[in-house]
Amino acid sequence: MSNATSSHPPGAIRKKITVPAVRARKGREPLTMVTAYDFPGGKVADQAGVDMILVGDSVANVVLGYETTNQVTLADMIHHTAAVARARPKALLVADMPWMTFHVSPEETLRNAGRLVREGGAEAVKLEGGALRVEMIRKLVSAEIPVMGHIGLTPQSVHAAGGYQVQGRRLKDARRMIEDALALDSAGVFALVLEGVPAALAQAITRRVGVPTIGIGAGPDTDGQVLVMHDMLGLNFGHYPKFVRRYAELSGEAVAAIDRWIRDVRRGAFPSEEESYHMIDAAALELIEEPGTDLAIGH
Q1: What is the rounded distance in angstroms from the CA atom of residue 30 to the CA atom of residue 47?
Q2: From 200's CA, which of 215, 220, 240, 269 has a CA 20 to 30 Å away?
Q3: Is 253 a catalytic residue?
Q4: Catalytic residue among 195, 274, 275, 289
């Protein structure tokens, strides 16, 4: 059993993390965000002391077994966000807006984001894309729905981008991404995820925008970091990206634990006397002595 402790002192009363609190961390203590997709995941992340929990559309790959995030629906995201919300986290709860829920019009974007807040319990939403999303972001901000931006490697654009590739390696692409970041900052996002970009570019963007940047595969000079919980804990049964550091190997531990249980069942070691319920002695004796109770099962 691990002797690791959470990042906040035992018994300490933890304040609720809010959007203004996240904004205020710009250039200060690095922010932490992990994904969670259900009630236990929300509990674990929050007890560890993360600042933000993201109900990511990565639920498509990690939990639902889809090939891309584009296959997850708004109903899926509401369902999983609500499960995490029932953990009542002190962390700020952010929900991804899935593909094609913020592309058609500002009005449709607002309706879909409103459902994530009302039905899912999200406290903020995240959407992918650069300057093309400004109109949608402004619509949400005007309705007082906090928005987290996301540029760089945007998984929902996997087909248009030709795969999952690092973005912004060339100077012209880097400059365009800086322009996107400034546009999102101006539109009113409270934080900005930078995924799969060179460290120097992430540092440049972080210095130019007034909101915290949250890196994933973006080097050490952002205002915070985010990882998929299943990657971090060794529960991903597929490819691990270069930027993932595994802090545990829980898939192996889980398989080994179930294997031990199977062996215990087969050799009659589970359940034990201590793990079984018992009748009052007299009632048990009377039941055993009833005629016909010694007949073999199946005869």
Answers
A1: 18
A2: 240
A3: no
A4: 195
